[in-house]
Every structure is written in C-alpha cells, then in structure tokens.
C-alpha cells in the first residue's frame, strides 16, 4: 500500500494550523483537545495501514492522548501491542514506523509490549499503570486489545492504586516545595495544577466511580455547586495550557517570566491604577490553583473514606460540643456549628494546633467551611472570643504555620484578616523572592517555628538561641504575618504594614507594650538586612545608628530572628 510521508507531514501542519485558527475564533478548549486527537487518530491509522502490519498486532493511544486530551504541543503516547515477542522482520517494520512518526512531524512516545509485558511494567510502576488505564484502541487486533484490557483491569486493586497515587501526589508536591506559589509556577504538576484534576479521575476510574465530573456528582462526591466550580477550574487551566503551547510553539507547562506578559494580554488583562495587568493575571492564576487544591484535598479525603476506610470502625473522640475527631480527622459535631457559633470557624484551626494527633479535616467539614465563608464579617472580626482564639492558635505547640496555611486555603484567613486576603497570589518580581507574598509570609512563620526545633541549632545557631529567649514567640509570628502585608498597594509597605499591624493587635487586645513591639518589628523588618548587606559595617557610626534603633537585647532577638526567617523564606537556595 505504501506511505506518502511528505503528504502526511503537510497534513499534520495544515491540521495544526486549522486547529489554531478555529480556537482563535471559537475559544472552545474541549473542541481543540478533541479535534487534535481525531486528526492524529486518522493519520496514525492510515500510517499503520500503509505499512501493512500483521493482523495480530494492535495500536493504542495511552496517557492523555488515550483519554482524548491532546494539547497543541503535548507528546503523543502510543502502545504497540504484540501477541508475542517480535521477530527480526517485525522489528525492522516497527523501526520504520517509529521513523515515520518523526518524519511526519509528530512527537511520539511509544512502547512495544506484549500483554504480559504491560502487566509486569504496570505492577512495578504506578505511572505506567496509570497511562495504560487510560488506553484507547486506535486500530489492529480487537481480540488482543480486549485481552489486554481484561487482564489489566483484573490486576487492578483500587485500594493499592489509591494509596500509590496518593503517595505519588505527596512526592510530587514535595518536588515543588509543597506550594503552587512559585513566581514561575508549573501549572500542570505543582499543587493545584492540572495533574491534581487527573489524579481525581484516575482514582475514580480505578474504583468504579465513573469517568466524568457528572459521575462524581451522581455518586455523591461533588455537590452541584462544587461541580460548577471544578469545571470552571478545569476550563481555566485548559485555556492556560493551550495558549501557552500555542504561544511558545512547543510543550511548556511553566509560566516563566518571559511568557507571563504575553499570556496576560491573551487573557485580556491590562494595566490600571491597581497595578500591572500581568500582576492581576498572575494573582488570578494563583487563586484558581488555590481553589483547585482545596477541591483535590476534599475529594481525596472522600475517596479515602469510600475506598480505604469503608469498613473501618469509626472511633469518634469528642473535643467539645462543636468538634470531634474521627480516625485522626477533625469534623463538626453537627451541621449548624458555624451558624450557631461563628467563632468556631477560627476555633477549629486552634484545636488542630493544640492537638498533635489531628492529621487533617474531614471532607464534609471542609465543604461546610467553604459554604460558611460569608459568616466571617466585620462583626466576627470584632468578636473578642474569635480574636482570643486566633491568638491562642499562634501560641499553640503544634503546626502553627500548617494551620495558618490551611486557614488560607480554606478561605478563612483572608476573610478574618482582609489585608492578608489582599496579598493572596500577589507577585513580587525581584532578584530574591520566588514565591507569591502570601506563600512567602507563611514560610516566614514556618521558619520561625523551625528555629524552635533541636535540629535548628546546627543550621541556625543564633536564631535558635535567640528565639528561646522570647517570652511570647506568638508576637514574633504576628510580625511575620504582617511584615509584607502591604505589598502591592504602593507606598512604603513597611510603614503601611505597621499601621495594619497596630489595628490588628488592638483587635487582639494586646498590651500597649506588646503592640509596640509588633509594630516596631513590621516597620523595621528590613533594617538589619539593609545594614548588613548595603552599609559599611566597619564604620562605627553605622553600628551606633543601628544600636540606637534596636535599643535593647529583646528587640535585637526579635529582629534578628525575623530577619533570618524572612531571608530564608525568599528562595529555597538561599
């Protein structure tokens, strides 16, 4: 039959151009993903037929291509399925096929395996198993492909698969420092990226819960409102990845600085009195992935309860009249908790910081927190009990920074401290910071907590020694929370932040002396690093000026600890 490689190459180029033009007119992301799959399907089927392969073989799409999502510059992953090991003649024909893949301009990743090879690889590699789970036959022997599918599914243990995918996700998060808030984020693999959506589908498919968002709603894993939000998150990230691929002309999933301005313009962002269009664009990006990250956490917890703990006895431990702990996870005692006691929206995080054995929040409670955000208003912000609970959280022995971060992700911290809400997703383009302002801020507090741990004596000996002398470390954490809170507003963020800090300290009913210390730290948080790095510290006048500013050992201990925590939270390489 023969293969006209030049004709197929021209067809590939024409097809890609047609997809680009159609997307520019319709802005229809699902249509682009579907149509590119269809175009590639058609070309590969004809290429396969042209090489006259034996009828005993099968060709299948796997991975993203298998599930029908093929982005403009994504790799095209294929499985060539064999009934037995290939002889020399078949190997030569397969080599010709692979050469044609590249000749026609398709970036194809391929594997050549028997059914048993597939099972062996899948048993030892969760990534391979996941890719094969999404396989879709393109052409060839239907009986062989059906055997492959039956044996693959027969070997699939939903419990083991879920545990391995969850571990894989945790390892992936660690590679990105457990944050999506890098200033050049990878919006596919970082927390809150497209991969988090795919993990949900993989687990759902393996457990028999369906293959669409509508299926998850039908099985009770999503409410109608959550279904709406998850589809919007997916739609946004799809458009983001499509436009980046089209703009760069190759596969790229990182929002590098070089691309951010062009993408901001593609999405219609413009400079205004509030700031640069690219800053607005990046802030919205971060907020989308924040929302998606919470959805992933909630659905992963629901899957955990439905798959791993379905037969596990529930052993509730009552914390108080509002909260209990079930198998390590905090949950509300009843659905009216937050309506009856709005300050419980703060209390839940304080309880988690006071009890080390609490490992997370039940999905139903996360859902209730999301629905109750409107209850955090000026009245609650003025509530003395709510503010005492927040101060108790800062003074708690366990995972203070973790709970502050959880408060942020659940939408509580930005409402309880509106000024903090203003910096969520706020970028800071300089030579040092690699995180958004809110992520950097939480890291500052986390570093302060690390200084209290025994292992900190080696890496941060002076900070570890100084923080032990502080009578109330929670005042230091407050200064850390507010030190950059006025960034992005224009003006001197240290002075503006000091005003915000004073107002919040008054809300917490701190003494004038305690308030003065926090405000002083926020106002002067740059003075030590500026003096050390930009002034001549061999000049006695420089040292005397700094000494007059600090005035005593207590202020020096606080400022030094804040400075080291701040510097080490700007960039993991510093």
Give structural notes.
With 574 residues, the chain is an alpha/beta fold. Helix content is 62%, strand content 6%. It contains 30 helices and eight strands. It has helices spanning 5-26, 29-50, 63-66, 88-103, 115-124, 126-133, 142-154, 158-175, 194-207, 213-218, 224-248, 257-266, 277-308, 337-340, 344-354, 363-371, 378-382, 384-394, 400-409, 413-416, 418-421, 437-450, 456-459, 461-468, 473-482, 493-507, 512-523, 527-534, 540-550, 553-568; strands spanning 58-61, 76-82, 108-114, 136-140, 316-318, 323-326, 329-332, 360-361. Strands 3-2-1-4 form a four-stranded mixed β-sheet, sandwiched between helices. Strand 6 and strand 7 form a beta hairpin. Helix 26 (493-507) packs antiparallel against helix 27. The radius of gyration is 28 Å and the shape is globular. The mean pLDDT is 92.
Q: What can be said about this structure in brief?
A:
It contains 30 helices and 8 strands. The chain is an alpha/beta fold and 574 residues long.
């Amino acid at each position: 039959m023969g293969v006209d490689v030049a004709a197929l190459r021209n067809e590939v180029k024409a097809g890609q151009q047609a997809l680009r033009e159609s997307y520019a007119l319709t802005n229809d992301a699902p249509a682009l993903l579907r149509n590119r799959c269809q175009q590639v399907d058609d070309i590969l089927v004809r290429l396969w037929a042209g090489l006259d392969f034996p009828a005993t073989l099968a060709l299948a799409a796997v991975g993203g291509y298998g599930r029908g999502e093929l982005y403009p510059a994504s790799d095209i992953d294929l499985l060539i399925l064999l009934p037995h090991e290939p002889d020399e003649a078949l190997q030569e024909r397969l080599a010709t096929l692979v050469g044609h893949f590249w000749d026609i301009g398709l970036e194809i990743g391929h594997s050549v395996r028997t059914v048993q090879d597939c099972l062996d690889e899948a048993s030892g590699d969760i990534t391979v198993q996941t890719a094969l789970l999404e396989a879709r036959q393109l052409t060839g022997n239907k009986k062989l492909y059906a055997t492959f599918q039956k044996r693959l599914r027969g070997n699939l243990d939903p419990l083991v698969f879920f545990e391995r995918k969850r571990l894989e996700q945790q390892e992936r998060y660690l590679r990105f420092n457990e944050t999506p808030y890098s200033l050049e984020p990878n919006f596919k693999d970082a927390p809150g990226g497209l991969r988090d959506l795919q993990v949900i589908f993989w687990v759902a498919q393996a457990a028999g819960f369906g293959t669409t968002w509508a299926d998850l709603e039908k099985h009770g894993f999503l409410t109608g409102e959550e279904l709406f939000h998850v589809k919007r998150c997916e739609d946004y990230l799809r458009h983001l990845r499509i436009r980046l691929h089209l703009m760069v002309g190759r596969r790229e999933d990182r929002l590098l600085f070089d691309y951010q301005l062009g993408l901001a313009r593609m999405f219609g962002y413009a400079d205004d009195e509030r700031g640069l269009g690219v800053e607005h664009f990046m802030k919205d990006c971060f907020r989308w992935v924040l929302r998606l990250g919470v959805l992933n956490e909630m659905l992963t917890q629901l899957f955990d309860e439905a798959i791993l703990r379905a037969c596990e006895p529930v052993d509730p431990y009552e914390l108080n009249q509002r909260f209990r702990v079930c198998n390590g996870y905090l949950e509300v005692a009843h659905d009216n908790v937050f309506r009856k006691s709005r300050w419980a929206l703060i209390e839940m995080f304080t309880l988690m910081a006071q009890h080390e054995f609490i490992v997370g929040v039940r999905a139903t409670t996360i859902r209730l927190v999301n629905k109750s955000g409107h209850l955090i208003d000026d009245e609650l912000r003025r509530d003395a009990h709510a503010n005492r609970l927040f101060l108790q959280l800062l003074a708690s022995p366990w995972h203070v920074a973790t709970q502050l971060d959880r408060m942020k992700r659940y939408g509580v911290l930005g409402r309880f401290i509106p000024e903090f809400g203003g910096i969520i997703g706020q970028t800071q383009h300089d030579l040092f910071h690699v995180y958004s302002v809110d992520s950097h801020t939480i890291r500052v507090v986390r570093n302060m907590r690390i200084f209290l741990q025994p292992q900190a004596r080696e890496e941060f000996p002076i900070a570890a020694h100084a923080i032990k002398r502080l009578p109330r470390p929670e005042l230091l954490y407050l200064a850390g929370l507010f030190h950059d809170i006025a960034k992005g507003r224009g003006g001197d963020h240290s002075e503006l932040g000091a005003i915000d800090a004073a107002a919040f300290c008054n809300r917490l009913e701190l003494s004038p002396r305690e308030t003065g210390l926090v405000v002083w730290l926020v106002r002067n948080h740059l003075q030590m690093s500026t003096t050390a790095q930009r002034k001549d510290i061999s000049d006695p006048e420089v040292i005397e000026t700094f000494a007059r500013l600090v005035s005593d050992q207590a202020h020096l201990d606080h400022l030094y600890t804040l400075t080291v925590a701040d510097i080490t939270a700007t960039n993991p390489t510093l």
